[in-house]
Design brief:
alpha+beta, 6 helices, 42% helix, ubl conjugation pathway, ubiquitin conjugating enzyme activity, UBQ-conjugating_AS
Length: 271
Amino acid sequence: MATNENLPPNVIKQLAKELKNLDESPPEGIKVGVNDDDFSTIYADIEGPAGTPYENGVFRMKLILSRDFPHSPPKGYFLTKIFHPNIATNGEICVNTLKKDWNPSLGLRHVLIVVRCLLIEPFPESALNEQAGKMLLENYEEYARHARLYTGIHAKPKPKLKSGAISESTTALNVDQSNTSVLNGDQKNTAVTVAITLPSPLAPCTIPMKGGNSQDQVAVAAPIAETGVGGSLAVAVATPVVGLQKKEGGAAKAQADKKKMDARKKSLKRL
């Protein structure tokens, strides 16, 4: 996330003063969200001007300031979808104030006012949205219908931007991400610990059991891991394996039968 460290101290000081002024005395139809933690991204809500296809809509936008601001212009983007010749489908804004006509002496207030004026008077000759630009030149009524449709669907009133609100939400997001990272790290460490400690206290153990022919039989008790609700790991010890006992018992009996057969064969040879 970008922070105020990405901007020179003198620029931060000037921006802080201007943002405070915009928050206390906003331009008509424009409300700026002041983020005390990151002045490199400025958010604003722009009301659709009366008498335009954008009337009754609220459009959220952002200005991204580079490290060499104000010597280079900010980049403007609409976050709310809008049908407009000078606003691309990805939200990028095309206006000369943010391009060739930029002057370091221009402030954020001037930029925001120019962007709102675009909603009143588009410039189809320098269109980023070619469909909107062509429609505006050839059939204004069709263009206005499309613009009103977008406005009604996407530009509904939004929660108002307040001073420090963006900063608080960003901080909360960082806390959530940090907690998630710690939790994931703990889960990984737990998995490693379990993998290392299981063989020692819960290694397969032998249980002597008396079976047929007074021979000791061995049953193996192997650890069984189960994952419970919430990802917790429960470990249980298996009961003696009956199948193994039967198998070993059968092998002993077969060996005894073989000995008997060998004895009979020797007897037949003597005869």
